[in-house]
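new request in #modeling-help
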Amino acid sequence: MTFFPHHLPLFLSFRLVAVALEEEIIVSKLGDNATLSCIYQGRKLPLKNLRVYWQIADDPEECSVVHALISGQDNESEQCIQFKNRTQLFWDRLESGNFSLLLLNVSQSDERTYKCVVLQKTEYNKVIHQAEVVLSLAASYSQPILSGPIRNSDSTGEEVTFSCRSGNGYPEPNVYWINKTDNSRLPPSELEITPHADGTYSVFSTLKVKATSNMQIECSIENKILQENLSANYTHLKQSDGSGTESHKNLEKNGRGAQAAGIVSIVILMGLLAVLTCWLWRRRSAKLVSYTGNE
Ligand SMILES: *[C@@H]1O[C@H](CO)[C@@H](O)[C@H](O)[C@H]1NC(C)=O
Ligand SMILES: *[C@@H]1O[C@H](CO)[C@@H](O)[C@H](O)[C@H]1NC(C)=O
Ligand SMILES: *[C@@H]1O[C@H](CO)[C@@H](O)[C@H](O)[C@H]1NC(C)=O
Ligand SMILES: *[C@@H]1O[C@H](CO)[C@@H](O)[C@H](O)[C@H]1NC(C)=O
Ligand SMILES: *[C@@H]1O[C@H](CO)[C@@H](O)[C@H](O)[C@H]1NC(C)=O
Ligand SMILES: *[C@@H]1O[C@H](CO)[C@@H](O)[C@H](O)[C@H]1NC(C)=O
Ligand SMILES: *[C@@H]1O[C@H](CO)[C@@H](O)[C@H](O)[C@H]1NC(C)=O
Ligand SMILES: *[C@@H]1O[C@H](CO)[C@@H](O)[C@H](O)[C@H]1NC(C)=O
């Protein structure tokens, strides 16, 4: 099971304060195993006098038993089909009141609020502990790749296209295009979110704007669950100062061109020298010949 060490504690404590003390948020990755926590800290009771039920809290109609422990034994008779062979209690922890549930191979349909109910069996059943766990699935998006237009010195006023792509994330992202000059949002001209077989999404978005001499554009991919924004920048400053991504690329290209031109002219020059040398040599020999002939 993968937690997200950077984000989880913050998110958790935030939700714990904002909601109820007994509710916990677990963030798990698709296909991983999730541990839903249920800790009873009261006085120790023999397992055979307890019943522990894991249920779906937000929709008890759909599935009333995710996992049941009755008289110290797993009881599968009422377990919902979608959880068959996918749940385990931690047997070495039960005696100490740790009734956490291991849920194997989580998928989108497991994104529910779960409830753990611990009952003490006397003449009647008494609830001695309850806990709720919200299971959220998430995966970080990859660092977005932003491509900007290759611009010549003066394309001001022309329409230019930017594109931004990212992938391997969950759930569906929000995409923001931002004009860094005044921090305003720009509406995307195209937004494509593609689901993949492994449950993750990839995203592709384009932005069409009228070019200005100084352009600073940012593409930002937001993962709401992880409270994470990943961004990529495009900076194009006025050509004259030589900074800016594209001008730099152009400079590089021009540099290579100049080098090639230099090599070509050297070759031509050497050729010319050779021809000249030949010509001078033959003129001299011709003179010698005519001289001899005249003698
Ligand atoms: C989940 O748990 C099962 C059984 O304990 C184990 O075989 C599997 O490798 C685990 N999967 C992951 C992604 O940790
Ligand atoms: C499961 O529980 C039911 C009633 O709650 C009981 O009839 C059955 O014997 C139990 N099964 C096992 C394997 O304990
Ligand atoms: C659970 O596992 C048992 C034996 O390992 C198997 O017979 C049964 O078909 C499985 N049930 C589901 C719903 O996968
Ligand atoms: C309960 O058991 C689980 C599984 O072994 C463990 O990860 C967790 O830390 C335990 N919690 C407490 C409070 O002991
Ligand atoms: C995990 O669940 C998915 C469906 O949600 C299934 O396609 C896959 O085979 C399962 N993997 C394992 C290791 O059971
Ligand atoms: C970005 O904002 C600046 C300042 O408001 C504005 O001059 C420029 O046209 C904007 N660029 C785009 C591409 O909208
Ligand atoms: C991500 O960026 C957008 C646009 O700037 C902003 O509205 C949103 O609040 C940011 N989200 C987070 C989690 O920082
Ligand atoms: C883009 O610029 C913003 C602020 O201008 C900065 O916080 C962010 O780290 C930059 N991102 C990249 C990938 O350079």
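bot summary: The chain has a mean pLDDT of 80.
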